[in-house]
Amino acid sequence: MTVRSASLLAGTGWGLIAWGLGRQAYGPAIWGGVAAAPFIGLVVGALLHPRFEGTSGWRRWLVALLSLYLGATMFALAVGVTDALTGSASRGTLEVVLQAVIGTWWGVTVAGFWIALWPLAYLTHIVLGWIDDLSPEGSPR
């Protein structure tokens, strides 16, 4: 397994977590985020996992926090776009998308989900590192 495929799988897992936490708040539009989740995992893994691997200590925790909020923001954008395309015509597209993003930031931060999700993001990077170590030399990352 490569880091890319593991990132797709991790994104899928994170999408299922987001579905469990946000299905009532988002409603049917959450399926846009769930569908995008594997690709969100791929992007977050490609952008931030090398930075995680290239540092240590508290900086790793900072990268994990950044990956949590980047992934949550991208998920919220997918939900917002899905809601704008399928939802009520009484609100503007930008309003719908911003509502999803701000609501997600609020939920992760103020509702305290970050307390559990931040260490989980760290663990996700650790597992990606293990997979990277086990992958054959020259495999695509």
Shape field: globular
Number of strands: 0
Oligomeric nature of the chains: single chain
- The H-and-E topology, N to C, reads as HHHHH
Number of helices: 5
Task: Give the percentage of residues in beta strands.
Answer: under 5%
* Biggest sheet layout: none
In terms of per-residue confidence, which ranges show pLDDT below 50 for 5 or more consecutive residues? none
Helix fraction?
A: over 70%
SS-based class: mainly alpha
Please tell me the total number of domains. 1
Distance, first to last CA = 10 Å
> Mean of the pLDDT scores?
91
Indicate the radius of gyration in whole angstroms.
Answer: 16 Å
Task: Write a short abstract of this structure.
This protein is mostly helical and 141 residues long. 82% of the residues lie in helices and 0% in strands. The protein has helices at residues 3-26, 30-53, 58-86, 93-109, 114-134.
SSE layout and pairing:
Blueprint: H1 3-26, H2 30-53, H3 58-86, H4 93-109, H5 114-134
How would you characterize the overall build of this protein?
The chain has one domain (3-134). It has 5 helices and no strands. The chain has helices at residues 3-26, 30-53, 58-86, 93-109, 114-134.
Keywords summarizing the entry:
mainly alpha, 141 residues
